[in-house]
Amino acid sequence: MLFHISMPADNPARVSAAIAELWGGESLAFPHFPGAFIAMAGDDRASAIEVYPRGLALYPGDGMNEVEARFSPGADRQGPCHVAIATPLSEAQVHALAWREGWTSKTLCRGGVFHVIEFWVEDSFMIEVLTPEMQAEYTGRISIEAWRGMLAAIASAPRERVLAHA
Question: Fewest Cβ atoms closer than 10 Å to its Cβ: which of 75, 127, 151, 165?
Fold first, then answer.
């Protein structure tokens, strides 16, 4: 089970508040790291997203000490990390929230299998937001067995395309 994830933001308070709104939860200060906030869903799993100031990096503590936070100047705004979350909001409400914040959002279908709303926080971190209808579609189609079936189909398909690296 995933309980929480952390992400960077230029404005952690604003980002945390928007994520909390997607969940119908609450945004609170995260005193462990200066300037950080936490969006809490208020659900039975204590789902949360910790939002750190951009440039804050985590390092292992010395010996048995806890994680250390240090600022790394020049942190890239884009990266491969993203998260998918559930929302009780409608598709229109999610897009309205993104529009209000000045962020990009769009509804897309992933591989013809399930739909998500790409919700681009500060246009640099992607959250795949799933409305109740999208959640049903996702959980009905994504499983270990379904993934194995997809891998088997790919392995047996003719090799016609080669992916190029940019």
Answer: 165
